[in-house]
Structure formats: structure tokens, C-alpha cells
Amino acid sequence: MSNRDVFYGCRLVAVLLICLDVFAGDKHTGPDNAAEHRKHSVELEDVVIGIQSQRNSYHARRSGQRKVEILQQAARLGQGVPVVVLLHELSQYEGDWSILPALPRLFAKYGHSASWLFFIEEETEVTLSALLEVLNRYPAQEEWFLGKRLRDNEASIIHHYAFSEDPSSFGYPDTAAGWALSAPLLKRLTERIQSENLKSDFTIDLKHEIALFIWEEGHGPKLTAVPEFCTEPRDGCATTFTTYLPDCGDPVSKNDVFVAVKTCQKFHSDRGHCGKTFAILRRFLSKAVPKADWLLIVDDDTLISLPRLRQLLRCYNPKEAVSLGERYGYGLIQKGYSYTTGGGGMVLSRTAVSRLLSSSCGCYSDDAPDDMVLGRCFTTLGVPITHSPLFHQARPDDYSEEMISTQHAISFHKHWNVDPVAVYRYWLQDTRPRDEL
Predict the structure, then answer these.
(1) What is the C-alpha to C-alpha distance for residues 345 and 320, in angstroms, rounded to an integer?
(2) Cα distances (angstroms) measured from residue 189 to each of 52, 102, 137, 338, 422
(3) Rounded distance, CA 112 to CA 133, Å?
(4) Are 104 and 190 in contact (CB under 8 A)?
């Protein structure tokens, strides 16, 4: 054998030994890698599911049923149990619905044990196994903001004309499909809420304002679109949504709803919104009008579907103090109050009106904003403001078409730059006109 053959033979043996050592090393480190993967894999007990519940008895019952369904599903899977929190039970503060005031409380209770905080609405159905598959795609050690993305087609007044040059560039979550925060993002948001002197302002559209707060003018993450977070059922969905207009039985009778329209321009200067509204409240309880369970107060440029309203009202108990409509908030970070917006229509039970008028709360001036005064009064009296996204303070064009096209809207507001008859026929009318009265 030549020296050259010996050289190449030894070289081949060395290469084989190196390969064997590498394979042996792989065999040794493989289980450790698998353990490391399992360590970072999200299980059900790593997830906190927050249901955006409400104090009204109907909504508290529905959200409680959703909680039971989720826990029963987890038991069938046998893969651990998530923490399920009803938001209205988190504290006594009514403003927790606006999420930001609730984040420090959620972090204090669950931030050191949970990997994800997942918010749903009371009518959002969740497939837990599919949810885990989604969450495990995203490293829980990083900041993530996940959801079904909505966009504005044009600049909207309810979003303060943000991103007016390119409204569709900013995405915000459809809360009906569910949305998620990773633990590191929850921690940073909590620290920001606790350390910064946040501006006390209006909460108008929670979905958009939450996304803006998280984005923090580019310092935080934008929403990551998750195709498995759905509203309409289809294959592969982790979530789906039922309806905002539930079937609770036959609609309430037309005679059970008293409709008051605020109008007459010549009196605007000396008989303002609040003065008019309290006059309406007193007349509603007087013997001058037929007794009815419900009072609906609208502006003269409110478009409303009375059949859909009557169907929705069947879900509520008029013997409870109910204030129903589109809920806004004022100064909620600073312990403010919620109120039902007037333009979309304010619905009050007879019991709520009686409690209000028997109290000392009222207008601080006749021309005060009536909806905000009512909200402040009801907050003082412990009457919850019950939210339905089927009422709208603005026009259809001011909302994401993808979102409102899946609703059965009850109202819209304002006539400028739209044909109100066309808006009514397209968005609100689903019966013969004579049945609307």
C-alpha cells in the first residue's frame, strides 16, 4: 500500500469518527431540545380567557353560560383548564369594559402565570384545540397583538380621522372574533398605564382605540391578522360568532314602546338637550300618555328599525333598571363614567326612569349634553349602562363595512352627505313599511 493510500485511508476514518460523534451528540441533545420545545409550548392552563361581559342580568347570564361551555370543552379535551374571567366580575368598577383600566388588575392576578390573554365577547364560540394551535405559532416570550383585522375604507369621524391619508393602512381587531395579547405585551401595557399620566378622554370605539394604544405611534406592535379568528363559520376557524340580535321570543308589543323624538329648532336656544330629555322623562311617567314598559329617545336625524328594537327588547326585563344603546365612556382611566349615546337612540326601562326621577340627580343646565348627564346619574345610582353594537351614533360609512354588514343594525345617526331613505332601506328595513310603525 502506498503512502498516498494510507493517507487517504486515515482521512476517511477520521471523517467517519467525526460524523459518528456528531450523530451521538444529536442523540444526546435531542431530548433536551424536545424538553425545551415542550417548555415553551402553550397549554390551556397558560391561557386566560376574558369574556367581555356586562352586569345586566341577561348579559351576565349569557356570559356565564359561555364560561361553562368553555370549561366543559376543556374537560372533554383533558389538556388542562384555562382561566375564564367574566370582565364585569373582575372588580366593582363599571369602566372595566373599556379594557385599559382592567389590564393592571388582570396582570396582577394572572400576569406571572399566564402566557396569553385572550378576549372574546359573550356570543363568541371558541374551539380550544384550534386556539392552542394558533397561539403556539407565535413565541409567547415576544410581544404579540393578534386578531381578525378590520380596516377603514375612508377616514371616519368616530376614529377622529386617524390615518386620513391612508385609512386602510391601520388594522384593528374585530372583537367578536376574539383577540389576544401575549404576556410580555400585557406587562408593558400595564407598566405604561400605571406610570404615565394618561389623558382622560372619550372612549368611542373600543376596538380602534385599543389598537392605537398598543401601537403607541409605532413604538408597539401593530395587529397581526389571524385567519383562524372568524366571525362567519368556515373550515379551520378557532372562533366564530353567533349574533348581536338574539332570539329571545316574540318581539315586545308596539304598545310597550313609547317613542320620543327631540326636535324643534326654534327652542334650541332656551330649551336645550338635557332640559328636553328630562321633560320627556317626566311625561313618560305621567298619566298624560299610555303606560309603556320602554322609553325610546331619539334625535330627529336618527334612523331606527323599530321591529329589530322590539325583538332585542324581548331579552331584557323591564322591571330592572335598564339603560340600553351604544355605550361611550368619559374619563374611564380616571374613574369616569359610561353613557348611552343620544344620536343612536337611548332606551330606558320604566324602572330606570322612575329611579332617576326619584333621585336628586338632574341637569346642571338645560343645554347640558343629555346623554352624558343621564350616564353620570345612572352611574351614581348604580344602574349599569348596557351596550349593544347594533345602535350607531354615526353613519354607515363611518364604520367598517365588513363589520356592520354582518350585523342586523338597529339604528344610524346623521343625514349629512347621505340619502337617509336609501340608508334606511339598505341597512335597516327588513319588513313591509306598515309593519314598522
Answers:
(1) 19
(2) 19, 11, 22, 23, 43
(3) 22
(4) yes
- DSSP code at position 94: G
- Write out pLDDT tens, residues 146-185: 999 999 988 888 988 888 888 889 999 999 999 999 999 9
Joined together, the cell numbers standing for residue 281 give 322623562
**Rounded alpha-carbon distances, angstroms, from residue 149 to 227, 351, 399, 432:** 9, 40, 14, 36
DSSP string for 3-70: HHHHHHHHHHHHHHHHHHHHHHHHHHHHHHHHHHHHHHS--GGGEEEEEE--SSHHHHHHHHHHHHHH
Phi, psi values for residue 216, rounded to 5°: 50, 50
CA 341, 342, 347, 350 torsion-angle sign = positive
C-alpha cell recorded at residue 44: 390551556
Which amino acid, 384?
Answer: P
Calpha distance 341→157 (Å, rounded): 15
In eight-state DSSP terms, residue 150 is: E
Give me the phi and psi of 293, to 5 degrees please.
-75, -30
Residue 87: is its pLDDT beyond 60?
yes
Q: Which grid cell sits at 88?
A: 364585569
**pLDDT tens track for 21-72:** 433 333 333 444 433 444 568 999 999 999 999 999 999 999 999 999 999 9
C-alpha cell of 345? 337612540
Residue that the C-alpha cell 363589520 belongs to: 403
For 251, the 3-state DSSP assignment is coil
Q: Which of 60-69, 255-264, 373-382 has the lowest mean pLDDT?
A: 255-264
Query: Out of 261-270, 284-293, 344-353, which region has the weakest mean confidence (pLDDT)?
Result: 261-270
Angstrom CA distances, 203 to 136, 159, 226, 239, 301, stand at 33, 10, 26, 26, 23
The span from the CA of 274 to the CA of 67, in Å, is: 40
Q: What is the DSSP string of 295-325?
A: EEEEETTEEE-HHHHHHHHTTS-TTS--EEE
User: Which of 52, 42, 70 has its CA nearest to residue 173?
Assistant: 52
| pLDDT greater than 50 at residue 306 | yes
Q: What is the pLDDT of residue 175?
A: 97
- Decide which of 134 and 417 is more confident: 134
Residue with cell 336645550: 272
